[in-house]
Amino acid sequence: MLKHNPNTTIVRRAAAIGAALALALVAGCGTTTDGGSDAGSGASVEEGFTVGLLLPESKTARYEKFDKPYFEEALKEECPKCKVSYQNADQDTGKQQSQAEAMLTEGIDVMVLDAVDTEAAGAVVKQSKSQDVPVVAYDRLAQGGVDYYVSFDNKNVGKVQGESLVEALEKEGGDKGEIVMINGSPTDPNAADFKAGAHEVLDGAVKIGAEYDTPDWSPDKAQQQMEQAITSVGADKISGVYSANDGMASGVIAALKSAGVDDLPPITGQDAELAGIQRIISGEQYMTVYKAIKPEAEIAAKMAVAAATGEKFDGEGATEIEDPDGNKVASVLLDPVPVTADDIEETVIADGFYTVEEVCTGDFADKGFCKEATGDK
């Protein structure tokens, strides 16, 4: 059974990786098979250059609130004269392709791409490379032969979620019913990894009564799927819900409440969204997965500078993976951290992801963690 270390080792480790990568940047030429890029070698940190940042959607709070500002801040540290050209695709593959084409026409020197659809993004990657613009895959591994990739160990995310769900069921006296699985978007390979990791833990340990893949990571569609599960399985027979992220967990909870379920079963999540943390405090959601976005964004900025200037890096945590097209990609994969009601102080609060004041608002101030944290004030 996975146990969370109250010391937030992932954040320290990720910061160490970022520092190691910064120290390890060395001049030279390379390709996607040796951890560098020939494309973009005309750019320089001294003169500055333009980085195109394309993020996939805004339904998940993390992208606008954390990823974008963290990346911009990190790039400013690495390259004070560099500029960011930013677009969000709102979960529209065609829109993201048009945004990428506009950036290439504009004259960006490197692209940082979090793809809506990683297979479809292969065309964007190939077009970029044909114009000598290197590509850093951010959070999701786009096809087409990107230069660098930074994300989390996505299969391990699913394992962490599955282990936490099994742990919750054991606390409640063991399996008393069936599990519903609300997986992520079928066009997101990360969702497939989460799903695979969860199945490694759940298969054989629990009975899965219903399972769905959720287009666009949509909370509304997750709610509809949960309503279908309640009809097919029976509300009183659902002992737990695997929800791949916090947004969809909100839809799951809404469906259960509408069905008259007052004593909610343990429900998983991911992304440590503020609303998710607050649901954990109130007891509506059992856990979330905290992924330290700041170190991920910092590493992406270092990769972007390396790719644009024709440099390469190596260091602690750096590895090489193979994309679906058989291309070798220099990568850094960070570790996820599970967060239950017992871990809020030592994770998202200790790391400054949220403050107590942000979390403990309104009715939440008198519940669980918040009652203890604000009791002496």
From TrEMBL:
What UniProt keywords apply to this chain's record, in alphabetical order?
A: Signal
Q: Which GO terms describe its cellular component?
A: outer membrane-bounded periplasmic space
Annotated Periplasmic binding protein domain residues? 52-312
Signal sequence bounds: 1-29
Where is it chiefly localized?
other
Q: Which CDD domains match?
A: PBP1_ABC_xylose_binding-like
Q: GO molecular function of the protein, one example?
A: carbohydrate binding
| Localization | Cell envelope
Q: What is this protein called?
A: D-xylose transport system substrate-binding protein
Q: Which source organism?
A: Murinocardiopsis flavida
